[in-house]
């Protein structure tokens, strides 16, 4: 799993800071298990590299790429999955989010900001 990036690039000079991780693995929210409907989104955004190599840095999360991917996706299902994750992130017992698909661990605040960014650009 990738833990190296210090921020998630959102394009247009915007980024989400990623905090150093210091929690036990059992205190995680498995994003892939909770919302498998996000897989086509990750596939559509995996244009810079592959997540097996670069983790979340392999994704182009820019507004332009999200706009280009949007017509090809079931945005209602994806937004539903994102909202499920967002709701679970309110639980203080889950300070860490994991995604095998993205090869990434994220702190809760970074995951919240990422979900907010995706919802903003996909639920337009």
TrEMBL record:
<feature type="compositionally biased region" description="Polar residues">
    <location>
        <begin position="12"/>
        <end position="21"/>
    </location>
</feature>
<feature type="region of interest" description="Disordered">
    <location>
        <begin position="1"/>
        <end position="21"/>
    </location>
</feature>
<dbReference type="InterPro" id="IPR046294">
    <property type="entry name" value="DUF6331"/>
</dbReference>
<dbReference type="Pfam" id="PF19856">
    <property type="entry name" value="DUF6331"/>
</dbReference>
<protein>
    <submittedName>
        <fullName>DUF6331 family protein</fullName>
    </submittedName>
</protein>
């Amino acid at each position: 799993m990738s833990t190296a990036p210090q921020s998630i690039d959102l394009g247009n000079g915007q980024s989400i800071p990623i905090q150093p991780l210091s929690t036990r693995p059992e205190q995680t929210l498995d994003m892939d298990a909770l919302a498998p409907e996000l897989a086509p989104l990750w596939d559509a955004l995996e244009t810079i590299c592959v997540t097996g190599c670069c983790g979340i840095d392999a994704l182009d999360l820019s507004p332009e790429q999200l706009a280009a991917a949007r017509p090809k996706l079931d945005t209602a299902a994806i937004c539903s999955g994102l909202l499920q994750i967002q709701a679970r992130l309110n639980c203080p017992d889950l300070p860490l989010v994991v995604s095998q698909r993205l090869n990434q661990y994220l702190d809760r605040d970074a995951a919240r900001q990422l979900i907010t960014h995706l919802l903003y650009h996909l639920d337009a």
